[in-house]
């Protein structure tokens, strides 16, 4: 494709995100105007998604130009289309295997019933891979040494409280909710990763948009860096903003102490921790939830981000 | 003799009649509600399930009060209703046109007759990718899903109705010189009306369900909707709000049913179909 | 028959009708009948001999299995054996629908409807609903509806079967008058032999299994006639005996 | 004269009739399919949307071939069909009983008549928490959602049908001495049959949609299902498989429609309702 | 009337029926009528005078607005003005349903059905469908169906209106025979004055707006009678004139 001028800007940017804790920088950036400020004359138009598939569908079919999204859907979308590019990270960590108090070793999980948010999503893959490493077999259809029953996070919390499941591998704030319901953290996912970090949310743009309007993308990144700064600089204020937005969108804000606990388990960073996404894809292949040739070579383009980081005198991030 | 007061069904005096009407129309649903609440409360008292999954009626109704007092909730209900009505209106036009085409033309019937039911059995979730593909992030995507859910029902109702028009009436209409559009408008549609209305009612149910599912597709910030709230309450394990929202949906459904029942009863009465009941 | 003037309005030639394929019921077999302009022809015959079937084919609502029916494009009005009123319309609405389909301008509907209801002795019944009427009233509304049509050929299937003698006599006069005024050609099915003689220029006698025409009888009596006229009674008696003989033969 | 060969509709010779039937029954749907494929291919050729969201028909049909050749996929389809049928069977019994109760008893009607439609408009997602609450993660939870979707439709169809039974027929039946269950079985149900069948068709559509949604609810050991695959493919942005699965669902829906159409046509023909068409 | 033996099977006292509330149509006003055991009573009257309404109330299918109707729990069989055959059943099925509802054991259905179809002159029509029948055939099936019932009081609303003279004459004989054999009490509505005199032990004349009984006439002629009997014709003529006078007065 003929490269556009490095500062070419678009008349508008359509941006998607979720009303989730792990999308806090996106929410803050939208609510406090960090994105719009950075974008200048480019009109910002936002869409809120409920789950990964809708966000992917929107990005691939050109209904949004960029979206905050989890690593699982990112990988799927890239494998299918090769038409998206991850330009930054947003959040890391914040997922754990929480189990009934009696269970203290992996071996005790044999014959138990665990939940994940959705078949083949990030946590589902993490759980299956981890179990495999512990010598416990699983199948996508729920059979094996450990039975995995994917269900919606809300149902998981209820099922755990009623003792219908023995544990669940879930993201925040549900992990904290399970702990509050008497669960014990058996595995904090970050301990499994090199450096103790793994990506939870990243920012993906349509490759076409990136090629056409590199200037706007840079503006967007600038806004993201500013929003991350706000989130990390004044967590209390950020929590208020995020909870306000969640309350407005979902009808119920999260309980404040729960939000606080969950928040402390998540790290907000622009580092996409590319290694963890790529290894996650390998894990998915390993447990049979991803098939075929998984080539993620062209997924990242971190040059614009690194340029901005360099300008700001911050450490650069790596695409491997 | 005609001036004498008459006894019997037609002759009861006004206040008596009102009381009788009360007994017939208000008492039974009231009893049903009371019974349902009693069973519910009993389950709660017996602690069959913990309160966070099965809250007490009082809790739910308190929450219902809070929700109804919340302008944001009312706005959400209003938004969803508006979407439902506009989607239904579009489905009405498309479904009626399709239904007439299938009912009246053998060719169209064998071409797409079964397709209608096929489309109808397709779950909303399957349409989502296509809806976003076609309509991007607009209300259009939601309406698309709603229309695809409702139009086949409406069409099928109309087709059924037209197929059941008694042949003697059709012969009579044709012998009177009825042709083309005039025949359709003056004879076929009125004759098919009861089944058509039944189709509309089913269509509304499909539209409404598709809508509540479709509202999860694109969440428009600052524009909460009923479908969205429903799934969020579920996600957040907010049982009182979830049940309160279900009650709202139930009541809306029942009100709509009453509207349909009124129309249908009017139609039946005018045709002398309600003459002999029990 | 008439060869000089215009072509006859109803020409039925070699008509047969079989229901339900080659092995089915033969309702009619080889029926030939020509009706002249303005003629009043009555059809008599046992129940099930194919009278209604023949009428439906003349009206173009059914197709003969063999033979041809030619009306030279003339418009027909049918009064069926059953009233077949549209239940979603009032009495007035039923008649107005016929006026509408006949292209009568809307301004005349009210007046024409009132006139027709007067003719059938149901003045002021416009706003009643079909299900509120007695059997004979329904039949009279159906009669009014068929008279509302702008037709040249009138086909009537036992129009007065559900009427008392007095009302029927009155309607005989009316139908005779209207047919005369409009120059209608009428094909009239009845079971009442005297009625046939009272009304018909010609009486056609049919026989069942399979349905066919077995006799034609001109009625050269002067009009107006009355059912009670001795000459009508005498001719009816003869025809009745004729039918009786046939029935004896058929059973 | 009866021995002579006849012309017209009844008289065509066998091979000719076969050809005519082909022309009437095979050609139109074929044309419709070809047209749909042509439009689809055109959109692909024009590259209206990239291939990874709107794959070419050939890609999708190739994938369809792969899926159909895969025993696991067939097993999933079989499992879903089995669930659909059993859920529908339960809904049939419950819906019919409810429908009769409402149609025959004024009290029950005013007590729960509108509730049926209210329940019908409740989206499956609202039932999920309750289903899990009552049935845990078992087939029972899925069936619960399916039955709640389908039974009201079946009941409403039956109610509509019973309400439309011509009063003269009811009077005749009662004057013949018809009473109670015998009257229901021998007169009311047969008279209401066409509307009842229409209700069953709608009920199937509701059951099937609820099922495909419900299958996401409970993942049962070693039991892949169509609903699960549908969302799985969507999850993986696997457009060809998604569209191929949609085609499978569409075809199943159309086959079911054909079954209903056969039954309905049989009923209509026996009653002489198909005499005058076009 | 009879005061000595058993209580009369049909006692209608002060019956009125108004449709549609206090301002509606008065179909019947103050009708008194007692029918004796085994009596054959014919009802005559203008179209819309309330004959069908009265029959429906005697059958218990409608309730009088005023007055009482007492049958002492006797079972009725009704033949309606319209055939009202069940379209989802064959001719045989329609009759068998009546037998079933009357508690006849299944083993006898075939035989009884065949017998009844013979009576109405439709032998072997068991497997035909209602929509394949002619109007008169449908009416005869309805007649057979009402005769299939195990009733003590038979109510018939213009049962022979759609029949040709020959078939009707034959059925007159049959109905007379069956009523005699079974000791039936019959209330028979007709528009045919001669038919009323031919069949009735007593003829009741009604008058419309509002419907009421204006005359009763015993018919002491010996049986069997024939429609063509001069004495039947003479009495019918008198009744006809009576009706005519009334009609002139009413209109
Ligand atoms: N749709 C049909 N299918 C099969 N047979 C039919 C059909 N319509 C009419 N018939 C048969 O054709 C014959 C003639 O019927 P038609 O109604 O013309 O008789 P009709 O002379 O009008 O008798 P009626 O005086 O009783 O009205 C009858 O034997 C009847 O059973
Ligand atoms: N359901 C109804 N609602 C209103 N009016 C009715 C209803 N049924 C009958 N009527 C009226 O009652 C009167 C008597 O009707 P009914 O059917 O008893 O007459 P009939 O003597 O049987 O007449 P016919 O000889 O024409 O059959 C008529 O004026 C009719 O319009
Ligand atoms: Mg006839
Ligand atoms: Mg009557």
Automatic annotation (TrEMBL), chains B, D:
Cell compartments where the protein resides: Cell membrane
InterPro entries: MetI-like, MetI-like_sf
Keywords: Cell membrane, Membrane, Transmembrane, Transmembrane helix, Transport
Gene3D superfamilies: MetI-like (1.10.3720.10)
Primary site of residence: membrane
Transmembrane feature ranges: 26-46, 52-69, 81-103, 115-135, 142-160, 180-199, 211-230, 242-261
Keyword Transmembrane appears in the UniProt entry: yes
ABC transmembrane type-1 domain residues: 77-260
Membrane-protein topology: Multi-pass membrane protein
Domain of life: Bacteria
Matching PANTHER family: ALKANE SULFONATE ABC TRANSPORTER-RELATED, MEMBRANE SUBUNIT, TRANSPORT SYSTEM INTEGRAL MEMBRANE PROTEIN
Family membership noted in the UniProt record: Belongs to the binding-protein-dependent transport system permease family.
Protein name: ABC transporter permease
Organism of origin: Amnibacterium endophyticum
UniProt lineage: Bacteria, Bacillati, Actinomycetota, Actinomycetes, Micrococcales
UniProtKB/TrEMBL annotation, chains C, E:
GO molecular function: ATP binding
Coiled-coil residue windows: none
Record keywords: ATP-binding, Nucleotide-binding, Transport
UniProt key word Nucleotide-binding: yes
SUPFAM superfamilies linked to this entry: P-loop containing nucleoside triphosphate hydrolases
Domain ABC transporter positions: 10-233
Gene3D superfamilies: P-loop containing nucleotide triphosphate hydrolases
InterPro entries, alphabetized: AAA+_ATPase (IPR003593), ABC_transporter-like_ATP-bd (IPR003439), ABC_transporter-like_CS (IPR017871), ABC_transporter_ATP-bind (IPR050166), P-loop_NTPase (IPR027417)
Pfam families referenced in this protein's UniProt entry, alphabetically: ABC_tran
PANTHER family for the chain: ALIPHATIC SULFONATES IMPORT ATP-BINDING PROTEIN SSUB (PTHR42788:SF13), TAURINE IMPORT ATP-BINDING PROTEIN-RELATED (PTHR42788)
Protein name: ABC transporter ATP-binding protein
Organism of this sequence: Amnibacterium endophyticum
């Amino acid at each position: 494709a003929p490269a556009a001028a490095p500062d070419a800007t678009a008349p508008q940017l359509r941006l998607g995100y979720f009303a989730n804790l792990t999308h806090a920088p996106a929410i803050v950036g939208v609510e406090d105007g960090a994105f719009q400020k950075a974008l200048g004359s480019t009109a910002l138009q936002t869409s809120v998604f409920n789950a990964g598939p809708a966000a992917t569908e929107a990005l691939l079919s050109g209904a949004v130009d960029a979206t905050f999204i989890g690593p699982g859907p990112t990988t799927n979308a890239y494998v299918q289309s090769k038409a998206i590019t991850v330009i930054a990270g947003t959040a890391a960590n914040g997922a754990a295997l929480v189990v009934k108090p009696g269970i203290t070793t992996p071996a005790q999980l044999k014959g138990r019933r665990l939940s994940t948010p959705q078949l083949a999503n990030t946590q589902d893959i993490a759980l299956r891979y981890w179990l495999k490493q512990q010598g416990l077999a699983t199948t996508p259809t729920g059979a094996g040494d450990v039975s995995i029953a994917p269900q919606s996070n809300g149902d998981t919390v209820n099922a755990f409280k009623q003792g219908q499941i023995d544990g669940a591998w879930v993201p925040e704030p549900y992990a904290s909710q399970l702990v509050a319901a008497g669960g014990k953290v058996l595995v904090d996912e970050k301990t499994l990763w090199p450096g103790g970090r793994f990506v939870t949310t990243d920012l993906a743009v349509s490759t076409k948009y990136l090629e056409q309007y590199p200037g706007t993308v840079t503006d967007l990144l600038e806004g993201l860096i500013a929003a991350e700064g706000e989130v990390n600089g004044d967590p209390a204020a950020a929590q208020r903003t995020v909870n306000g937005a969640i309350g407005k969108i979902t009808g119920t804000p999260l309980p404040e102490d729960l939000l606080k606990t969950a928040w402390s388990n998540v790290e907000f960073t622009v580092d996409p921790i590319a290694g963890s996404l790529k290894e996650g894809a390998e894990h998915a292949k390993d447990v049979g939830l991803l098939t075929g040739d998984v080539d993620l070579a062209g997924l990242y383009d971190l040059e614009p981000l690194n340029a901005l980081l360099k300008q700001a005198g911050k450490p650069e991030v790596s695409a491997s | 003799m005609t001036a004498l007061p008459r006894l019997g069904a037609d002759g009861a005096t006004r206040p008596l009649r009102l009381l009788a009407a009360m007994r017939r129309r208000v008492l039974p649903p009231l009893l049903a509600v009371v019974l349902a609440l009693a069973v519910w409360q009993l389950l709660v008292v017996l602690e069959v399930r913990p309160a966070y999954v099965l809250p007490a009626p009082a809790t739910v109704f308190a929450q219902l009060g809070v929700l109804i007092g919340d302008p944001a909730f009312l706005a959400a209900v209003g938004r969803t209703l508006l979407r439902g009505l506009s989607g239904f209106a579009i489905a009405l036009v498309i479904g009626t046109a399709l239904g007439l085409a299938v009912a009246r033309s053998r060719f169209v019937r064998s071409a797409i007759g079964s397709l209608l039911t096929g489309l109808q059995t397709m779950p909303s979730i399957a349409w989502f990718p296509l809806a976003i593909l076609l309509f991007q992030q607009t209300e259009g995507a939601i309406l698309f899903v709603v229309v695809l859910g409702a139009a086949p029902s409406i069409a099928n109702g109309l087709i059924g109705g037209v197929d059941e028009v008694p042949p003697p009436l059709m012969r009579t209409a044709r012998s009177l010189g009825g042709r083309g559009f005039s025949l359709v408008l003056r004879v076929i549609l009125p004759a098919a009306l009861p089944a058509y209305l039944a189709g509309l009612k089913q269509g509304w149910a499909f539209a409404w369900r598709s809508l509540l599912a479709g509202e999860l597709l694109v969440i428009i910030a600052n524009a909460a909707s009923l479908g969205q709230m429903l799934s969020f309450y579920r996600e957040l394990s907010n049982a009182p709000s979830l049940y309160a929202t279900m009650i709202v949906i139930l009541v809306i459904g029942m009100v709509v049913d009453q509207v349909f029942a009124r129309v249908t009863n009017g139609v039946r009465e005018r045709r002398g179909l309600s003459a002999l009941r029990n | 028959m008439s060869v000089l003037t215009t072509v006859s309005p109803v020409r039925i030639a070699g008509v047969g009708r079989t229901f339900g394929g080659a092995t089915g019921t033969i309702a009619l077999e080889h029926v030939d009948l020509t009706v002249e302009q303005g003629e009043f022809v009555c059809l008599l015959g046992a129940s099930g001999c194919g009278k209604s079937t023949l009428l439906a084919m003349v009206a173009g609502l059914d197709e003969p299995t063999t033979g041809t029916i030619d009306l030279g494009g003339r418009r027909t009005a049918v009064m069926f054996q059953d009233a077949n009123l549209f239940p979603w319309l009032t009495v007035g609405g039923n008649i107005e629908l016929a006026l509408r389909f006949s292209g009568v301008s809307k301004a005349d509907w009210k007046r024409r409807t009132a006139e027709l209801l007067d003719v059938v002795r149901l003045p002021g019944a416009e706003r009643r609903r079909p299900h509120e009427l007695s059997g004979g009233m329904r039949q009279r509304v159906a009669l009014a509806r068929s008279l509302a049509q702008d037709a040249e050929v009138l086909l009537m299937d036992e129009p007065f079967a559900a009427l008392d003698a007095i009302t029927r006599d009155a309607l005989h006069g009316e139908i005779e008058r209207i047919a005369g005024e409009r120059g209608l050609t009428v094909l009239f099915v009845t079971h009442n032999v005297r009625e046939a003689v009272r009304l018909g220029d010609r009486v056609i006698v049919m026989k069942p299994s399979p349905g066919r025409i077995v006799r034609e009888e001109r009625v050269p009596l002067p009009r107006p006639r009355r059912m009670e006229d001795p000459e009508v009674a005498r001719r009816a008696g003869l025809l009745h005996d004729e039918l009786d003989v046939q029935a004896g033969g058929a059973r």
